[in-house]
User: Which sequence fits this backbone?
């Protein structure tokens, strides 16, 4: 959070806005989650980054993590002189350096031109551009971004699910390590900001019971796998009714 205050002048993500609604600011969330990682041992830092982006990385000799690092703009599509990804982490190994670039979006939609600009600028001057991997943490993204293979898009609900799993396992230990403590705090923050770990109806174990037709309407009834089926249907449906 300190980084967001000093560099971005951000407000607390849970502070009310002038109209009384909760105000959520990307920079404050980014700093709250990732400023502590800057002070972790490289082995703990890479475990945190792996959880966030959903990819397992080899433990580096050193991890240099910076927020809003500025790069000269290579592409002219954004009409900007510089590019500032939210997170840039350089993983230093004995024989190579791998760069992780993370763009954090909360209520804003992620667009393809921003991703392309970040990739081009953060790869410029690197001997092996393929060593740069781009990730996007979002609520929403353009379809073009979702189809763009050069970035991995992850929703906050997926992140929270993984954090809750590690935090739950940590509750069973007497002294949780740095990763477990961070996961517990990060999960509480995302929950307070309204993120849920529900990933869709597929996880609800719904099973088909029967299928029948009532006039022009055909209904397929579902019930819980561990509950008795309950017959329920609408005999008349007015599609024009608001």
Assistant:
């Amino acid at each position: 959070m300190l980084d967001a205050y000093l560099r971005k002048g951000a407000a607390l993500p849970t502070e009310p806005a002038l109209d009384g609604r909760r105000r959520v600011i990307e920079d404050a969330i980014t700093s709250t989650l990732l400023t502590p990682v800057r002070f972790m041992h490289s082995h703990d830092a890479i475990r945190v980054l792996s959880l966030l982006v959903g990819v397992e990385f080899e433990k580096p000799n050193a991890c240099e993590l910076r927020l809003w690092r500025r790069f000269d703009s290579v592409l002219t599509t954004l009409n900007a002189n510089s590019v500032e990804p939210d997170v840039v982490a350089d993983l230093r190994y004995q024989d190579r350096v791998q760069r992780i670039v993370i763009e954090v979006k909360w209520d804003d939609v992620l667009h393809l031109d921003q991703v392309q600009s970040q990739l081009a600028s953060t790869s410029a001057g690197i001997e092996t551009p393929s060593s740069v991997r781009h990730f996007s943490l979002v609520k929403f993204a353009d379809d073009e971004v979702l189809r763009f293979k050069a970035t991995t898009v992850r929703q906050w609900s997926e992140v929270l699910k993984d954090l809750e799993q590690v935090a739950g396992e940590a509750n069973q230990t007497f002294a949780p390590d740095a990763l477990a403590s961070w996961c517990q705090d990060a999960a509480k923050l995302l929950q307070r900001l309204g993120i849920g770990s529900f990933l869709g109806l597929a996880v609800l174990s719904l099973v088909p019971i029967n299928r029948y037709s009532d006039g022009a309407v055909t209904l397929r009834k579902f019930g819980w796998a561990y509950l008795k089926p309950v017959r329920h249907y609408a005999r008349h449906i007015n599609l024009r009714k608001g």
Summary: The helical segments are 2-8, 26-34, 42-53, 112-123, 143-147, 156-170, 178-192.
